[in-house]
Amino acid sequence: MNSLTKDTKLTIFYILIAFAFSVAMRMVWVYQFSGYAQFMHNGQFMINTNDGYFWAEGARDILAGFHQENDSSSILTAPAKLTAFFATVLPFSFESIIFYMSAFLSSLIVVPIILIAKNLKNLEMGLIAALLASIAWSYYNRTMVGYYDTDMLNIVLPMFLLWSIIWAINTNEDKYLLITAIDILVYRWWYPQSYSLEFSFFGLILLYTLIFDRKNLYNYKLLAIMMFAMMNLSGLVRLPIVLGVFYVLKQPRYDRYIYYIFGISLVAFFISGGFNPIWGQLKGYVFTTSVSSADSGLKLHFFSVMQTIREAGHIPFETFANRISGHTITFLLSLVGYAWLCYKHRIMIFALPMVGLGFLAYVGGLRFTIYAVPVMAMGVAFLITESTRYITDKKSIRYLSYVVFTLAILFPNYKHIEAYRVPTVFNANEVKVLEKLKSKAQREDYVISWWDYGYPIRYYADVKTLSDGGKHSGSVNFPVSFILTHPQQESVKLARLDVEYTEKAFKIQKQNEELNESKKIKLFTNIEEMTKDYGFRDTNDFLLSLQMDMKLPKKTRDIYLYLPHRMLEIYPTIVIFSNLDLMNGSKKSNPFYYVSKNFKETKDSINLGSGVVFSKNNSTIKIRNQVVKLRRIVQTYYDKKMVLHSKVQKLNNNAPLSLIYMSAFKTFLLVDEATYNSLYVQLMVLENYNKNLFEKVIVSPYAKVYKLKI
Which candidate, 372, 360, 199, places its Cα nearest to that of 273? Predict the structure, then answer.
């Protein structure tokens, strides 16, 4: 340690302070829910992001040494491999590792921030920026304890890439050519969708070179090795190419060929399809439509899932600013500070891709704000340090000012952390249901539920699912939506069909891998294959045929329905995916569905909120100014043995709505007749199931599991 310079020692000290601060702030959630049993499993807190169970399943299977064919396990992904490695070498439980992993890995963001500040000879700016960036709203939200997802390194790695680019341009040292290329390889390994940001860095360096430094051969070396690292090829292929190119670029005798090498790298990038994923991402997140259609076959239309994902929606400016900096004023100061930083240190222009992607959130969805966090933090930190220097030369006053201003920008973010009490994905009671299911179902069996629950179901029950967080396109969601929201007779048939056609598609895909292009069998969506196989040209006619007797495919495995109580909240969203005409994309009229948990009861009425009032005197519902008669009133309750009972009061067979009171949850449900007869309401809410079609497997107030008999 004595051999280290004072500057280096201070850098390490600041990194340790910022890292410890970042981790400590993430322990606030742990402190708040300490001892809360419903958030715990196997003695440890459960994770609080659905996608985390995808990586956890892969890590579990890697450690086990096997998985089922076509089970979509993530065994080949970086997060699963890294988790399995940690689980092998660390003396902690698997549950502890996946819960705390994000807190420690995401806190590494402080390292590149402070290293960049060291290059700019302003370590105090680096410390202030690291403290703010590590806990800023959006960064904290997506990297808190339990948020076990790729986001725990998704900003850390590009910030390391920015650091290596800045040091490369500033020093022109050969080692930074290799470090930059390795950064790209690691970033792509961890997050395959990193194309766009990598390409943006490349484009900015090229522009910078052409405008300010066109005769500097080093810059072309940097651009060339970046292109080779960014090719759309396996990392195992790109790594030796990068090492070979680095060896060549180090040799002065090859300097006269640099322009040719750069040209070859560009050709290799585009020939390998390097630009294709970039365009695909833009179309997926920016140019979204509510209904997508196929371009061949029956040209069916499906509802786009992107329209229902909050993180892909537009956000107000205040939310946008708060998520990046914690407060609108801090954000505006950050803009001024970053502009000043770029003026004083032109090299910080290379951070623009991070800023640009973060600002895309204003039009493309809140998930992107996280990218702008570290750079904007550096902006406000620079403003604090530089402004203070202009005000006073006294070190004591300057450092006191640093502390005061830093606390001021940190405070709104801390208050957010204190209030951000995110629950775990499932509670302990729901997990118990899935663990019971695991003991009953085989690994080849399917469990049908909404895609939000796909990954946790696979992790805890070790079964297959039709949809999940990565497989939820409109064509996949349509049959699942139909199954959950239509009568039992129709739903059970489509459930068997969708499962068997899914397995059939897996077999065809495997056959296609062994055939040349001309002999490959073209696969359409399951619903289109069903339509054609049953002799229809109109999918609407096929769906109507589900109401009649029909010959179903041979049963190859069991099918279960997982119906959680929490699905009540998202039922209207589920309906959307099957509530349209697949032939022309037109949306059907929305079913009536209203849930009330906050209601006020008086002697004569029950106010359900939002202008909906139930009259006790004449058993009618007033919806704003319209009085509607009720078809029936149902009250459900559990006895001491936790058996569900229902009291049904029939009122008017011609009335359009029914009122259900779920007394165990103090919840009212006001629905039309189609919704009342839906599989979800009948099986989950009322336990009124057709015994010829279903077998009740597991029932609890929190979730119910039924097994198909056909």
Answer: 199
